[in-house]
Amino acid sequence: MTKFLIGLLTAAMISISAPAIAHTPTQPKSALVLIEFQNDWMAPDGGINAQFKDRAQFDASKANARKVLDEAHRRGMEVIYVTMTLDPSFKVLGQAKYGLRATMPQYKSFLGKQAEIFPGFEPREGEYVIRERTGSSAFGGTTLDSYLRNNHIEDIYLMGYALHLCVESTLRQAHDLGYNASVIYDASAAFTREQQTSFVNDIAPFYGRPLTTAAFLKGDL
User: Which stretches of the chain score pLDDT less than 50?
Assistant: First the structure.
């Protein structure tokens, strides 16, 4: 009994004298999210490339996106690729009557080489690439939300294709999930100038922040 009491007393003294371990809160990080930088959209012979009626906007988006990606690498930001790679059966999309889930099988989108990442934008070793996806949003049926939360990423910068489709859908869902989302809209492209203008003026301010490539490069984070 005496040995037991001595043991308890010794343990208590050690506990009192031991220095407390400091826990420093993890600082939130930021990530650049590239949405569908794939041949189907970006290659001249891509199956859906011809949808970009405003070719000047599209060409500018490619040049700007390259600058943004280079700057993100320079800053050591997380870079995440969200792609879509489908099976020829398109079973994952179900028997949709309307919308993109109905039209993608008709256009045979995101199959084979069409689903590959466009040359010049290949991921670096260790960068996270999402291929399985079932929705227009980058969060739709993917691990994006889990990856961001597990890596303490709260601020995300979106760019990609098409601006008024998958990028907008991602922005809306990012807002509802609690992320601080910016869209680098001139490193993205809509089909027409009117669609881009409507996104910047009527959509983006309600769900996040529209941002230019120049502002991103200048450091307006």
Answer: 1-6, 8-26
* Residue 88 pLDDT: 78
Per the DSSP assignment, residues forming a β-bridge with 31 are 78, 156
Q: What's the CA angle centered on 42, arms 169 and 61, to 5 degrees?
A: 70
pLDDT at residue number 134: 86
Given this model, what pLDDT does residue 119 score? 97
Report whether the peptide linkage leading into residue 162 is cis, meaning its omega lies within 30 degrees of zero.
yes
Cβ partners under 8 Å of residue 74, min gap 6: none
* Distance of alpha carbon 214 from alpha carbon 220, whole angstroms: 9
Q: What is the pTM of this model?
A: 0.84
Rounded Cα gap, residues 33 and 101, in angstroms: 23
Residue 134: Cβ within 10 Å count:
14
Question: In sequence order, what DSSP letters do the residues of the chain get, joined into one string?
Answer: -HHHHHHHHHHHHHHHHSPPPP-PPPPPEEEEEEE--BHHHHSTT-TTGGG---HHHHHHHHHHHHHHHHHHHHHT-EEEEE-----TT-GGG-S--SSHHHHHHHHT-S-GGGGSBPTT-PPPTT-EEE----SSSTTTTSSHHHHHHHTTEEEEEEEEB-IIIIIHHHHHHHHHHT-EEEEEGGGSB-SSHHHHHHIIIIIHHHHSEEE-HHHHHHT--
> How much is the pLDDT for 27?
53
Check residue 28 and give its pLDDT.
60
* Residue carrying structure tokens 């999930």: 177
